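Recall the central idea of this unit: under ordinary conditions, the amino acid sequence of a chain determines the structure it adopts. In this exercise we apply that idea directly, starting from the sequence alone.
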Amino acid sequence: MTSGTEHEMYGRMPVWRLFLKCSIPGMISGLVWAFCSIMDGIFVGNFLGSDALAAVNLAWPVMTVFMAVSDMVAAGSSVRISMHLGNGDTDSARRVFTSSVKLIVAISVGFLLVGVLLGGPIVSAMGAEGEVADMAAQYIAVFSLFAPVGLLFFATDNYLRICGAVNLSMWVNMGVAALNVVLLAVLIGWLGCGTWASAFATGFSVALGSVAALVPFLRKRFVLRFVGGWMDMGTTRRVLYNGTSTFFNSVSGSLFGITANAVLLSVAGNDGVAAYGIIMYVNSVVFSLFTGMDAAMQPAISYNHGSGDGRRVRSLFVVMSVASMVMGVAVAAMCVLADGPLTRLFLGNNSPDVAALAERGLTVFALTYLLSWVAVNINQTLAATDLPAHALSIGVMSQLVVPTAFLVPMSTLGVDGVWWSMLAASVGSAAFSAAMLCLGARRGIFRMHGPAGGNVSATG
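Accordingly, the structure predicted from this sequence is:
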């Protein structure tokens, strides 16, 4: 049994110790999911071919939009819950938690219908044709079948961390990822099933993970537990507003992915889309380090903002930034030096034209890691300190507006222009994010003040 006071470490534990305690499990959780994503790419690329890889890459932006709505509620409620706990209002924290779980399940039922009934038209509207379009639509439909339970997984993971159960969150993530890989090996590697098996493996795994993560809350092991009632409309709007930055981060990234795929289809055909898919698989590993760390630190930042300790918020941000800068240099060097082996993981000796495109693209894209962490860190910090509009502007600009502004004109230079446009976008996004951080500092997020009770509704 746990004492139900583990969340109090966010306000008491020394900053560096707290950072290590939270960030390491968070990054491990991110890494195992990135590893799972890479294994998915390896199985699909090696056993089903580059067309199947292109189909999965076409389907994922659509699935990301589905998950973004769940993440919006999860992220928005996590900020409110953490601030309530930092302010000592446990009852309101529990009410927001209960209501948010119900809201995510209700929304996810709608996604089941959309994915099953409209997957084909959505893929066709993206410009895909023939067998690639059929496989992508099938992928969306199968994944959507698990949406009502599966999309809850990403919220329960947040709630476990809020309660201080960072290690339990890590173990649940590792178990779900391991099950996913086993299912991929059996369904695709052994039985030779098609692209749908990749969607089934992911959907079934996260659905089972959701059920496992809910058990401690149902058994009332943590400070968060299910209670009666519903958060009022004002609080509901605030939860959704707090989550808008997370939602538009994901949606903007998906829209850019759709745009990039369309541009690459016109510039280099299916080979270009497959190469971009390989780069995005590698990118998922790298970004799992940044996003895993930032997501793990969100409860600590929101908790201290809720208690009015702006100096501790600043210390947490500085520690996150130093760690991210070191990781950015390290992973950029690794990707440049190992671009060939990383590319061959997905294709083996097949499709040499795709491999050549991906290797060249990865070499250029790796340089984005020197600066791309800036937008991620600042976005998370502003969202966690109850400045969703500032965080939203960073998400939309860094994930969609700035990349598209460089992509469209630079694509006239061919495939290389597409890769170099992403590096240029990372510079522009970092500059814009730094400007937003200055505005946030002027709003007092790094200053000491009284508990943020005036910003947190007493009813939820």
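Residues 233-307 form the longest helix (75 residues).
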